[in-house]
Structure formats: C-alpha cells, structure tokens
Design brief:
This protein is of the alpha/beta class. The protein is built from 11 helices and 12 strands.
Length: about 325
C-alpha cells in the first residue's frame, strides 16, 4: 500500500534548514513528501508558518492548525532596525518622537524588534508615530499613534526603503535587509552598526533567540493522520542536523565564508552547543516572549499559552 502524500509548502525552500527536503536528503517516514513553494494553507498539508501570523489567528480563535516544535527560520532582529543617517537617531531612545514604519501589524520580525525596543531598551512607544502600509490601520493602545502609509504595488521593502530615503519616515523595522543597506547607500544605516555584539548581549541578558517560522499542519490532515506531526518533527531534526554538518562537518559545503566553522564556535560559546533545538522545553523563554510581546503590542487580545499551539505527541517527543 502506497504511503499517503504530505504536501509541504515552503516559504523559504533555499535556506539551509529546509534545503535537505528539496534536494531529497531527508524524507518523512510513512509519507510521500511533495514539496512546493508556499502560496497559502488551503492547498497544502503543512508549511513553515509565520509565528506572528499564527499567534494572530490563534488570538482571534480562527486557528484550524496544529504546530510542531520545529523552527527552521530564526533571526535576531536588532540588525533589521534601519534609520536614515541624518535623522538624529543614534540610540534606541532616539526613536522617540520619530516616524517609524513597520511592514504589517502581525509581522513576526516587527513583533520581535518592537518587543525588544519596548522591554529591553525602554523606548516610549507613545511618543512615536507608527506608519504601516495600507489604507486602514488601527492603534494597539490608547496612547499609540498609527498612520496609514499608502504604498504603490510592488515589494514593501523597496517602497519603504524609498520612504526612508525621501524622509517620509525616519526608521524602518523590517523583515529583510533594505536595498539601500545592501548596496551600502550612505544615506541609510542600521541602528546598531555592530549588530552582532548587540544581539549577543541581548541574548545574554534575555535568553531570547527569536523564532520566525514554526512548522505547522492543517488540523484536518492531523485528524486523518495523527502520526504525521511526530514524523515531520523527526524529519526536520534530521534536516537541521544536515544543515549544521554542511558548515561544521568533515567536508564543509559553505566555502564563500572561510571561517564559517569558527563563527559557529563563537555562536556556541555565547548560546550553548545546541542553540537550535527543535523542542518546546529548551525554547520556553523565546516562546513565552512571543506570547508576551504579541499581547503587549495588541496582536492578541489576551496573553496566549504557547503549549496550546503544539501537537501533544510532538510536544512530548524526547530529544532536540
């Protein structure tokens, strides 16, 4: 009897933690894996879901999904706070009184960066004019000013970059590196030029390693195949291990960064040997931080319980 098909839509098929699925290095036991690029949850069974989006739908009660503790995309987000060089912004507190753009209300990157600015750096959000794309926007609190920022069709990072360069906004909290930053335009810069040190210090102080994507399945699929979450979690652990081996193994595949293995040693010295665990217990601090930040920023009407996102069998699976 043929194995049932598991249709997985990847938001980022080319990142190192997902690539082993695409190149056939990893299979999902008991299933025929069909890979595609993510276009929406309606025509697939599983995907690498935006953590902010998941939190938003869970908060609204419209959440026919079940997740597993696999996090293929994690990024510190202090490096993604961009300013204009003539805006007079040298420190996080200098954002007060400025016009700051974010991509979307529940955008995961902006939740993490806003959460850090609010709780770690003590920025007074009531003094900021928050700008968001769209014709209709809403405030997340009685003292929070939010302004609609009409944008022409196209990539939001490009158009918000143009708004930053023109002076319409003073800073951008983005999910991607702005084009002007990538091309080293002298008119823009990161808020934290030495973002590696800043993010390492942030981790040391908070224990937070931001989670961007959480592997998630449609609940109807899990009801039909209750063994799918554990099988998919085991496969993602294998894929992650391959990604690490491609940097630190006996025949490294990352050659354009000559000291990639040394950089991994540095990260392990700061964050521990197993700093990318696929479980719940070792990620409790980061998971709880998302619940706290999402509630504080009005993404959810109340503080959610992070364990409620996960399949019970996958949550209980031993190992990392």
């Amino acid at each position: 009897m043929a194995n049932p098909k598991l249709r997985f839509g990847f938001r980022e098929p080319d990142i190192d933690t997902n690539r082993p699925f695409w190149d056939g290095s990893v299979e999902v036991e008991g299933f025929e894996l069909e890979c595609s690029e993510f276009e929406g949850p309606e025509t697939i069974d599983a995907w690498d879901a935006s953590f902010g989006g998941l939190t938003s739908t869970k908060g609204k009660g419209d959440h026919p999904y079940v997740s597993i503790p696999a996090y293929p995309n994690r990024k510190f987000r202090l490096a993604y706070i961009f300013t204009r060089t003539d805006a007079g912004i040298e420190t996080p507190k200098d954002l007060e009184g400025k016009r700051v753009a974010i991509f979307a209300w529940e955008n995961t990157a902006a939740i993490w960066s806003r959460g850090a600015l609010l709780t770690h750096y003590g920025v007074d959000f009531s003094t900021i004019t928050w700008c968001m794309p769209g014709k209709e926007v809403r405030s997340w609190g009685p003292d929070i000013t939010v302004e609609a920022l009409p944008l022409p069709p196209g990539r939001r990072d490009t158009t918000l970059d143009e708004k930053l360069l023109s002076g319409e906004v003073d800073a951008v909290l983005g999910p991607n590196v702005l084009p002007s930053i990538s091309r080293k335009d002298p008119r823009t810069r990161r808020l934290f030029p030495d973002y590696r040190t800043e993010e390492q210090n942030y981790f040391k102080a908070t224990g937070i390693f931001p989670i961007s994507h959480v592997v998630t399945l449609n609940r109807d699929f899990v009801d039909k195949y209750p063994h799918a979450p554990v099988a998919l979690l085991k496969a993602h652990r294998k894929a992650r291990d391959i990604a690490f081996d491609r940097v630190y193994g006996t025949d490294p595949e990352v050659v354009v960064i000559s000291w990639a293995a040394a950089m991994m040693d540095e990260q392990r010295a700061v964050m521990g040997d197993n700093y990318w665990p696929y479980n719940v217990g070792d990620n409790a601090t980061s998971l709880q931080a998302m619940m706290d930040f999402a509630h504080a920023l009005g993404v959810t009407p109340e503080r959610l319980e992070y364990r409620d996102f996960f399949d019970p069998d996958a949550l209980a699976l031993d190992g990392q």
